[in-house]
């Protein structure tokens, strides 16, 4: 493939970091995982972060901690990856899907209409790295009439006394809203470090705790540490200390801790994630060099987004995705470039993708709305109830964005997309 879709950034620094862990004799949860948690908390401006083996595990741990179970409802967008809704089903609760807006993110007005006394959690999703309007969502759950509707059934729910906002920020590490980074925008935020994410640990995730008093985020961190290790009160590294072998199991927990091997990759990637980013302005030249790249991950992805937008905006048939402005204090993490073909049908979009692929360019679609999937069809969800989600999906193509992308590859993507689009639209006109 001349242009892969999203290969991870793996270089000698990454390999050396992993090799050092392997040679240390300690490869599971240990000092590097704890250091990664500390560094992420500092980066996101929150008090505590727990690293786990996936974002899915992180979301589910939080739902269980908050006491979500049978009879409860969790509001989430119909336009998301299946993990967002699957974890709700795992808890025995009901996913309540609402439609999205033109920017792919959940429609706050529809959230309000979907709230019932059974609603325990709202789970917004930052599609492609573009942050949701958490100010509006946070204000909504604190509104007196919404608070009065809340019906708590567990100690944690009674302590919060309102709906919990749990952000599925799998795509949006480093994004900002009103000059604040994701992770600090709402109650609890969960990131993904899957292989295709901006910051990868091969597999992995992190939970950012940002609850206000009377909650103690440090205590919640300890509680979820136990839940992530089969309910065991000590991890393996703690047990290895002299005379500290004895432990207890206080609940039937899960097994979803992050290992030091994964954390070692994450530490390397976090160090170079956006260290030069504060110096970028909207007017900066956006050219990717073919002779090497010393920019941060976010800076590089921003440049690729800007080149794509500059070229595709010259054609009336394309809808450019939102990714923000530094002057406004809101910007994406530039995770995925969701280009839409104006007026294209789902069948035409698929034909365009086929023609692009014939040029050895890998593209994708983010995502199939949940009601299109057999699992959720069988549960009674109908795509006709989510017209904006379907409209966005039916004409969307996700373009390659990755750190080592060259300007020549970017040019090939642009040419392939333009040629394929005009070929299909002319043929079907």
Question: What would you note in describing this structure?
Answer:
The chain is of the alpha/beta class and 429 residues long. It has 2 domains: 12-271, Type I PLP-dependent aspartate aminotransferase-like (Major domain) (Aspartate Aminotransferase, domain 2, 3-Layer(aba) Sandwich), CATH 3.40.640.10; 277-427, Aspartate Aminotransferase, domain 1 (Alpha-Beta Complex). The chain has 16 helices and 14 strands. The strands form 4 sheets. Strands 1-9-8-5-4-2-3 form a 7-stranded mixed β-sheet, sandwiched between helices. Helix 3 packs parallel to helix 4 (82-90). It is globular and about 70 Å long.
In short:
The chain has 429 residues and is an alpha/beta fold.
Shape, please? globular
Per the CATH scheme, the topology name of the largest domain is: Aspartate Aminotransferase, domain 2
The largest pleated sheet is described as: 7 strands, mixed
Oligomer: single chain
Task: Give the key terms.
429 residues; alpha/beta; Aspartate Aminotransferase, domain 2; Aspartate Aminotransferase, domain 1; seven-stranded mixed β-sheet; 16 helices; 14 strands
């Amino acid at each position: 493939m001349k242009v892969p879709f999203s290969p991870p950034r793996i270089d000698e620094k990454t390999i050396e970091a992993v090799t050092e862990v392997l040679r240390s004799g300690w490869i599971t949860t240990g000092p590097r995982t704890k250091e990664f948690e500390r560094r992420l908390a500092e980066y996101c401006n929150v008090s505590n972060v727990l690293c786990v083996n996936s974002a899915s595990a992180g979301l589910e741990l939080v739902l269980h901690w908050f006491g979500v179970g049978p009879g409860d409802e969790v509001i989430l967008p119909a336009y998301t990856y299946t993990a967002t809704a699957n974890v709700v089903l795992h808890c025995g609760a009901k996913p309540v899907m609402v439609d999205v807006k033109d920017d792919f993110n959940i429609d706050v007005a529809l959230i309000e209409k979907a709230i019932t006394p059974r609603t325990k959690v709202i789970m917004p999703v930052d599609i492609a790295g573009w942050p949701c309007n958490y100010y509006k969502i946070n204000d909504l759950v604190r509104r007196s009439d919404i608070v009065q509707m809340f019906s708590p059934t567990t100690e944690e729910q009674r302590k919060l006394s309102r709906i919990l906002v749990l952000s599925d920020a799998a795509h949006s590490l480093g994004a900002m809203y009103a000059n604040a980074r994701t992770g600090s925008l709402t109650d609890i935020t969960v990131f993904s470090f899957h292989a295709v994410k901006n910051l990868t640990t091969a597999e992995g995730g992190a939970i950012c705790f940002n609850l206000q008093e009377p909650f103690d985020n440090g205590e919640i961190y300890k509680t979820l540490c136990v839940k992530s290790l089969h309910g065991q009160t000590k991890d393996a590294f703690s047990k290895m200390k002299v005379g500290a072998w004895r432990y207890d199991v206080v609940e039937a927990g899960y097994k979803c801790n992050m290992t030091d091997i994964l954390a070692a990759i994450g530490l390397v990637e976090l160090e170079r994630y956006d260290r030069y980013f504060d110096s970028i302005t909207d007017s900066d030249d956006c050219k990717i060099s073919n002779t090497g790249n010393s920019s941060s991950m976010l800076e590089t992805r921003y440049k690729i987004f800007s080149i794509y937008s500059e070229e595709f905006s010259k054609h009336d048939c394309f809808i450019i995705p939102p990714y923000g402005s530094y002057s406004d204090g809101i910007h994406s993490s530039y995770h995925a470039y969701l280009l839409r073909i104006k007026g294209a049908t789902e069948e035409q979009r698929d034909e365009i993708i086929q023609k692009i692929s014939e040029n050895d360019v890998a593209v994708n679609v983010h995502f199939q709305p949940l009601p299109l999937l057999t699992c959720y069809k069988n549960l009674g969800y109908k795509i006709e109830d989510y017209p904006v989600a379907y409209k966005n999906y039916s004409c969307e193509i996700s373009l390659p964005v990755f750190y080592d992308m060259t300007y020549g590859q970017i040019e090939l993507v642009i040419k392939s997309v333009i040629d394929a689009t005009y070929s299909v639209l002319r043929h079907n006109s």
